[in-house]
Specification:
heterodimer; A: alpha/beta; two-stranded antiparallel sheet; 15 helices; disordered C terminus; B: mainly alpha; 2 domains; 71% helix; 0% strand
Amino acid sequence: MRIDRGAPIFVAATFLALIVAPGLIQAVFEIRHGERPRALDIFLRPPTARNLHAYERSLEESSLVIQDLRPGMQYLQWRFLADTGEKAVVGRDGWLFYRPSVRYLVEGQAGAPEGDFTDPLPAIQLFRDELGSRRIRLLLVPVPNKESIYPERLAGRAEGAGVVICERTRRLLDRLEQSGIEYVDLFEVFRRARQQESRSDRERLYLARDSHWSPKGVRAAAAAVARRVLEEGTLHQGDRTYAERLVRVRRQGDLVQMLRVPQIERALEPEIVTCSQVIEADNGRPYHDATDSEILILGDSFLRIYEQDEPESAGFLAQLARELGRPLTSIVNDGGASTLVRQSLARRPALLKNKKLVIWEFAEREIRFGTEGWKIVPLVRSAKTPR
Amino acid sequence: MVFSTYLFIFYFLPLVLLLYYALESLSRRAGAPVERTTLALNAFLILASYVFYGWWNPWFVWLMLGMTVVNYVCGRILGRPGLGRDSRFWIVTFAIVVSLGTLGFFKYFLFVEDNLNQVLAWFGAGAFPVFEIVLPIGISFYTFHTLSYSIDVYRGTAPAVRSLLDFACYIALFPQLVAGPIIRYNTVADQLVSRSHTWERFASGVVLFILGFAKKILLANPMGRVADAAFEAQSLSTPDAWFGALAYAFQIYFDFSGYSDMAIGLGRMFGFEFLKNFDSPYHAESITDFWRRWHISLSTFLRDYLYIPLGGNRKGSRRTYFNLIVVMLLGGLWHGAKWTYVVWGAYHGILLALERLRGKRSAYRGWPRPVRVAATFVLVLISWVPFRAADLREATSYLGAMIGQGRSGPGTLVMPALLYTQGTLLIMAIGAAVVAWPIQAHDWSREVTWRKALVVHPLFGVSLLAMFSQAFNPFLYFQF
């Protein structure tokens, strides 16, 4: 019997061509651009585990084949499998959700990262006490995750459930209360706001394809925080008058941008949102912070959206300033509200001068996933203060 | 280094194949004898394997080298003619103690210390300081390789290897180094001295490698995401808990059998032929049958080197049941130093003993075959819960959710978004079809035809594309 060797040779040769080609293409490309082939970098450093892993990462990140083919594959996975990969979860009616926030809602302690500084309370208590010793009041503003406010947009099973609070958040809020730490309960504010929403309402408290709140959510939160500030009596309504100007902006949504797939971005129409830009009534200039304000706000990207982003001066800071009738001082760090903003403040203690109130905003998911956890950050460093 | 990474597939593998076959061709053209050519190829494979292994941590290579030298020397002494019985016994004992002692230190020291501290805490005593010990990857597998060699030589079922290079190649051979299959020395002894390299064998290795790669990337990894979501959830409904357990059953099967296929396929590319490690385990009709089909290289190892030396079934029924349970308990513990693995092993040991009580037949042996298969699958599925769970508390709570005792919470409401997406349902269906398919990758890949060629390369292309869009995802058995 004659054995056909054609198929085995074809299989072997095609396989070899497939596995050799990417490295070869990469090397040729790099040489043509006057660079040394990155694959040779392995000979430049001692072969420690760290260097080897960095080398592997660098090969992968610079790979032309991956760069060219990955977006197409991600697009197909999104289109046919409703899978957006590691960053986002596809919800209903075209909504997207930030995967770490979904994990925050779903997971118990088992999935919690191990290590120090996972409990927010000690850091918050110390911060409150240190501010208290300077006669400055602390007001916390935990901003609910989108999943907690619109769970039914994530899964049909949550239809009719309304606003939900996961156990971890509930426990922290209870502990804050027991420790006498003031906070604004935005879950309750948004729950009431949602009760007034009808299905046909176009404007929601959060954006459909962004992990952040909408201008409506910003206004509701700013009004609630302002109410709380004024009720406590530390500060009275200021005398600065602001006006508002409606500005329409198109937002692709950070969740779409995180995917880094141009094909998906092209396939999805940006959301059009109407923002209230806060302007100074006397000169029409957009709102700006003032470092000599009696109020300092620390926070994350929930403060940045509409404020530093388009259209500017329409975010939480501007809305709160308008509600209180006075400008504010702020420290904003995307994803860094748990620790980085306090570190930033510790480096610039002059910002606390004249302050009577510090408002500390952080996203609910930061309770677990805050960058660098909840480190103890003494405002005045001393040998006795624990780190 | 991991098989399913850019570095391995596009740099390491082509470079090693190229140099290996260049060396083989040069040696053949120079008219070198086959044994000498093979020795040179083995030397090259050792070098490549040490680079592969050292990628995790170059220091681990020294440990493996040390184990290799100790067992080689013991094997050489055992192989000397005229060595007394007592001397042989003490030499093999020394080799076993060194191998198991090293494994025990790296894998179980922390576990023992933790448990000891807990016991001390009950009595109000102070705790020992807990040392963090990094587990060298693959140590469980290559320890079993060294054990198999020393014991086989002691028993006289394998000759003592003459060349240190051949022996080092057997221990370090990168395709099977970090997650098996566990290769018995006597099954590859001849191939280490002389093996043939043909297009047919190479191509069949390619086909098997691609099938294993596709199992890992297209089926195991997406199922893993579902299983992770379920097992890390704070609260679960009953259907979600079953769905998560099913996803894990698919993940572990496709992950591990995929790895085994890739390992055996790579072995074929370098002229080796390793034994099959999986034989459609989810077609098993009883737990006894399951262990003939699941991780065959481990179950036969435990049978030959533990169960039979313990007396097997030769010392009466009670002793047989006891032996079965002990072997499975230790088999569980081999997977990791955690009580969850002990429980998993005990569960299988008890089921095996119960079936032995009924003449190696399950309680449902009289039922139609599909029901027997389904019943066995459910029993296995339940066992995967403690195997996957982070600790016994999580396992208990998960099993509780499976029988309707789960807590409900806000997380339960949104779980469908993570579990029942279009993608996971489709992949689950494909996975189920692959599991049900009567033909296995190992057998299907033996003969390469044009029709198969037209299937595997598109499959490889799709798997590569999927790999590019996935996060780093090492094989589950690396942790063992």
